[in-house]
Amino acid sequence: MKLLFDFLPIVLFFAAYKLADIYVATGVLIVTTLAQVGWLWLRQRRVEKMPLITAGLVLALGGATLILHDPIFVKWKPTIVNWLFAVAFLGSLLIGQKTLLERMIGEQLELPPPVWVKLTFAWVLFFCILGLANLYVAFTFDENTWVNFKLFGMLGLTLLFVLAQAAYMSRYLKTGDADPPKES
Fold this sequence. Notes:
The structure is a single chain. By secondary structure, this protein is mainly α. The chain has one domain (2-170). It has helices at residues 2-19, 22-44, 49-68, 72-92, 100-105, 113-140, 143-170. The chain is globular and about 55 Å long. The two termini are 34 Å apart.
């Protein structure tokens, strides 16, 4: 459900682009992202840093796209967001007792510390590659192809990566019969 919530602005951006153009889609992206932050605030009376940073980037880069009438700014947004995620995950290896990933899902999973580190490095690499892929598609292909990639390509790659991570983590889950393998 959270993944769908996270991808809602992208889905609405895509729909608005198909019905109108990049500028209407950018306006929809801004409004939807700000509405999500507002919704989170109303429900939880707090909003975590990454949604706030993402909203700030959407507002700044989307606003620049609308004001300067140049889609280049909104095309950079997915890359910057993914690279910020990579920096956050990498930084979590240096700050605190637990990685960011372990803080996010550690209550649902019990994994050895080296596995959390490996999973975190995998996410860092994934976010870096996804950011590069966005730039490649944005600056190599036409705008319509980039918009399609932004929804279907990035969502598809993310889902495949999450499934690969789940398969890797499943090796370490306790089944009741035997203990999971030790990580060295």
